[in-house]
Design brief:
The protein is of the alpha/beta class. The chain is built from 3 helices and 16 strands. Strands 1, 2, 3, 5, 6, 8 and 10 form a 7-stranded mixed β-sheet that branches. It is globular.
Length: 255
Amino acid sequence: MNLSKYKVGTRCHEEGTGMKVRRKWLRDAGILVIALIAIIGIAAAEQGRDDITTEIEAVTGAEAGAWETASPDSDQQRGGYRYKILVDDTVEVTAYVGDETTLFIPAYMEDKAVTVIGPAAFKDNEKVQRIYLPQGTLEIGEEAFAGCKELQDIYITKTVERIGERAMADCPLLEEIVFPEAVSSIEAMTCQGDTELRQVTIQSGVSGIAEDAFSGCDALRLVYGESGFAKSYAQENGFVYVDMERIREEGNRVW
C-alpha cells in the first residue's frame, strides 16, 4: 500500500475542506458586514430624521411662541367691547358688538388705560343714542362714529387731541358737538351730513378747519371762544357765528 499517496490525498482533502470553511467564513463575514452597514445606515437615517423633526419642532415652536407673544395685540373682548393692547401698553377700542343705547366707554381694560377709539369702531351702529368717552382718551379714529343713525349726544372728553376724518359723519340726529381745547384741527368731512347739527363749540386751540368739515350741516350755528379763526371760518362758509363771551353775558338772548 502506497502511504504517500494516501497522505497526499488526505492533505488535499483537508486543504479542500479548509478552503470551503474559509470561503464559508468569508461569506458569513461579508453578510455580517453588509448587515452592519445596513444597520448603521438605518440608524443614521433615523438620526437624520430625528434631527429634521427636532428642527421642525423648534421652528414650529418658535412660530407658536411668536404667535403667543403677538396675541395680546390681537382683538380681545370685554363685555360688548372689542379692543387691542397697543405698543405703549394702552388700549384701543376696535368695535362695539353690544346692544346698549347709552354707552359709558370704560376708562380701563385689563388695568390699562383706554386712549384710542379706533377707526370705524362704532360705524353704522343702529342702536346707540348716547356715548360718553372716558377721561384719558387721546384720539378718535376715522369714521369712528360715522353712520350712527340713532346717535343724539356724544360727550368728547377734554383730553382728546385728535379727531379723524368723518369721525361723526352721517349722524342725522346729532344736534350738538363740543370740540375739546386740545384739538388743533377739525379734519375733512368730520360732521358731513349731520343734518340736525345746530351747535358746535370750537375752542381757541383750533387753528385749522377743513372746508368740507361741516358740509351738509344746513342747520349749523358756530359757537366760539377767544380766537377769531372760527369767526372767519363761519363768515366764509355762511354759518351764524356767536362769541362765547356774549353767550356768557347774554345767555340764550344772543340767539
